Amino acid sequence: MLEQMAAAYGPVYDRFREERREAPAKYMDETPRWVSGQMAYLWVGATPTEAVYHVRPTRAHTEALELLGPRPKGFLVHDRLSAYETVGTKTGLRHQACWFHLLGDSKELEEFLGGEGGQVHGVLKAVYHAARRVAGRGTAEHVRQLEETLVGGLSNRAGSSSRGHRFVTEVLSLRDRLFEFVVHPEVEGTNNRAERASRPAVVARKISGGSRSWRGARVFAMLATVVQTLRLRSQDLIRDEPGYLAAAGG
Description:
The chain is an alpha/beta fold. The chain has 2 domains: 2-95 and 191-248, Nucleotidyltransferase, domain 5 (2-Layer Sandwich), CATH 3.30.420; 100-177, no CATH class. Helices cover 61% and strands 14% of the residues. The chain has a 5-stranded mixed beta sheet with strand order 3-2-1-4-5, with helices on both faces.
């Protein structure tokens, strides 16, 4: 029965996938999912009005490219997984690194290093809060000031641990992808949209244990896309699906 539903909703899934590809900002995430007893990954591409799911064997950049489609444009908002760096290089998509993950990592650094890590975490928190105050309406001058505060605060930190040095070096290398959300109102500073879209699938995985076959994984991805996208649009599968099926030729 689920396969029959997926077949019926196939054109709707394709429509939602194409609409997500046209969005100016693409929020990406991936989470483990068992398929046929093997570890695979559920990739999520989210926007304010779509959540598109895609189950693939690996976390390689090729899987993300398949979800993004040919010649993607706009911004890629992500958690700094190396695969997204390759995606950006191959497509020309501009990056917005997720501040939620960045602050989580700096908080962990504080717990591990104490004072040195605390100073790093404090600098990042202060810079992020300043950036949020002008989010979507900032200027190049705002970005310059934020970068200057970031570099100055991290460069003057107390302590010289190797772990702290590596983290600070990484953050400073990300300067050109930390503040896109300041000047572009269509971009958010975190990939929380994709994280939120992942949660129902994570709950389903914990209950079911995953998919028994790749065919079942595809069915899950298609139906989850339809249900979650309708939810984001404040629509209902029972009430609104006839219209979508008719429009898609179902």
